Amino acid sequence: MIHVLVSDSMSSEGLQPLLDAAHINVVQKKVEEVDHELHLFDALLVRSATKVTEELFEKMTNLKIVGRAGVGVDNIDIEAATKHGVVVINAPNGNTISTAEHTFAMMASLLRHIPQANVTVKSNEWNRSAFVGTELYGKSLGIIGFGRIGGEIAKRARVFGMNILVFDPFLTKDRAEKIGVSNCTLDELLTNADIITVHTPLIKETRGILNKETIAKTKKGVYLLNCARGGIIDEAGLIHHLENGHVAGAALDVFEVEPPVNNKLLKFDNVIVTPHLGASTKEAQLNVAAQVTQEVLNFLDGKPVTSSINLPTLTKELFDKIQPFYHLAKKMGNIVSQCMKVPVQEVAIQYEGSVAELETSFITKALLSGFLGARVDITVNEVNAGMIAKERGISFSEKITSNNSGYENLLEVKVFGDNQNFVLRGTHVPHYGERIVGINDFNIDFYPTGHLLYIQHQDKPGVIGRVGKVLGDHEVNIATMQVGRKEKGGEAIMMLAFDRPLDDTLTSQLAAYDDIVSVKSIDL
Ligand SMILES: NC(=O)c1ccc[n+]([C@@H]2O[C@H](COP(=O)([O-])OP(=O)(O)OC[C@H]3O[C@@H](n4cnc5c(N)ncnc54)[C@H](O)[C@@H]3O)[C@@H](O)[C@H]2O)c1
Ligand SMILES: O=C(O)[C@H](O)COP(=O)(O)O
């Protein structure tokens, strides 16, 4: 008998195939209610309420798969799952439409004061003049983050006669054209939008993307919406601009801390809120429950799963041989992604030497997952990297070459993006480790780890000294430094390593020097 624990509320219709399976025993109870039986379960199905922690994995000694009936897996410790050999799957697009519709409902409610008016009529008030609203028609809607949900919102906004402004640094031209939108800068969006809605993942780059400073750049009377993740709009910054009257109103489905007990935002009459309801429709819940049910059934039957977050696909023996290149490739993908903050159409990987004899498709997926990991909400790994790249309009290829560049093994990645290409070469030296040995046309040699700064500059006296001085003035200690150039007085590069991350003001200060062409900070 197989035992499945369903720990959060889920559509029974979606779960039906599991409930019908004679060889499967389904228990629908909270984790805390079955504390003494946790070791029995083979599969665990959750939404966002159950926290799937390292401690829980330790108790669920028979667990093989966790199914998340939804998108975000931030409530599941993926590293711990992988460590415990537990496969994690999710349902990435089952609630897209519901969340887009909820955002639209929030937008209409916000501009027409529907929740506030509803309360007064039910309190026997009939105050029509207090609730004069604003039309959506003809307004500019700024969408920050143009993935699945952002795209669905744009389709609906167009039908409402709205102008659409999009900011998504990773949006490809092809996809933008297909949906009929044009990508602008964040500043253009901020200064021109009447209404702004965020649909990015909550990551380092998007945490507080709307804050005291950026909201100050928006039109007076702007409306703001967050139906993605609490923290993308900085709550303190929003409160500041609600208090000074710059923001006309806000609609929030998500909060920095949920539930938002004693949150000052709840005191504003022009802030409307819902308790994380984006995915709460019969249809979305049926979709996500049915998707994870099917995946879990497939997995338990020994069939492949399609939306795995962390499924290992190699035998241990093969994995051991591949491991050094797997780690190198992942880092190379991550470096390239951080150096190419523009839409990318193509990633081409070339293998030379002994690495070319291994299962290179796995290494290619590792590189892609390193590349995509910095750009998308869901956890990307070797299993889902190809699918995600395809979904984002990024083609990828791998080639085995008989070139002999002098290295025992060599990985070369070429990335082609909007008006910009980037080439990175790396090697693994047995008993010595990973080395990056080439960037574009330059030869270099550094260990890819920690906090790095990549500077392109003119080969002139004083440039290195100026960089050293700026860093010294900020009390930043340089751990290692490599330089490379093609010819005397021509283009040159530096790669510096530090013990701590650098702040943006420092990189901007360095980038302002005439002889410095570009500065990119890389965190691995
Ligand atoms: N309220 C809810 O109940 C609910 C339901 C579903 C999803 N969500 C949340 O909505 C968000 C979006 O979901 P999705 O399915 O559309 O995800 P997605 O991965 O399809 O789209 C995210 C988009 O954000 C873009 N992005 C990444 N970094 C960015 C940056 N620095 N600036 C601007 N854009 C950036 C990506 O390029 C991508 O296009 C996620 O945070 C998800 O967890 C909330
Ligand atoms: O990430 C998601 O899918 C949404 O935030 C929905 O979460 P929920 O399943 O708890 O409603």
TrEMBL record:
Instruction: Return any one Pfam family short name.
Output: ACT
- Among its keywords, does the record have Repeat? no
CDD domains per UniProt: ACT_3PGDH-xct, PGDH_4
Q: Per the record, what are the reactions this protein catalyses?
A: (R)-2-hydroxyglutarate + NAD(+) = 2-oxoglutarate + NADH + H(+); (2R)-3-phosphoglycerate + NAD(+) = 3-phosphooxypyruvate + NADH + H(+)
Q: Which GO terms describe its biological process?
A: L-serine biosynthetic process
Q: Which GO terms fall under molecular function for this chain's record?
A: NAD binding; phosphoglycerate dehydrogenase activity
> Pathway membership of this protein?
Amino-acid biosynthesis; L-serine biosynthesis; L-serine from 3-phospho-D-glycerate: step 1/3
Q: Where is the ACT domain?
A: 452-524
Q: Does the keyword field hold NAD?
A: yes
EC number(s) reported in the record? 1.1.1.95
For this UniProt record, the keywords arranged alphabetically read as follows: Amino-acid biosynthesis, NAD, Oxidoreductase, Serine biosynthesis
SUPFAM superfamilies with a match to the protein in the record = ACT-like, Formate/glycerate dehydrogenase catalytic domain-like, NAD(P)-binding Rossmann-fold domains, Serine metabolism enzymes domain
Known NCBIfam families for this protein? Answer: PGDH
Describe the family membership recorded for this protein in Swiss-Prot or TrEMBL: Belongs to the D-isomer specific 2-hydroxyacid dehydrogenase family.
Task performed by this protein: Catalyzes the reversible oxidation of 3-phospho-D-glycerate to 3-phosphonooxypyruvate, the first step of the phosphorylated L-serine biosynthesis pathway. Also catalyzes the reversible oxidation of 2-hydroxyglutarate to 2-oxoglutarate.
- What is the name attached to this protein's record? D-3-phosphoglycerate dehydrogenase
The beginning of the lineage is: Bacteria, Bacillati, Bacillota, Bacilli, Bacillales
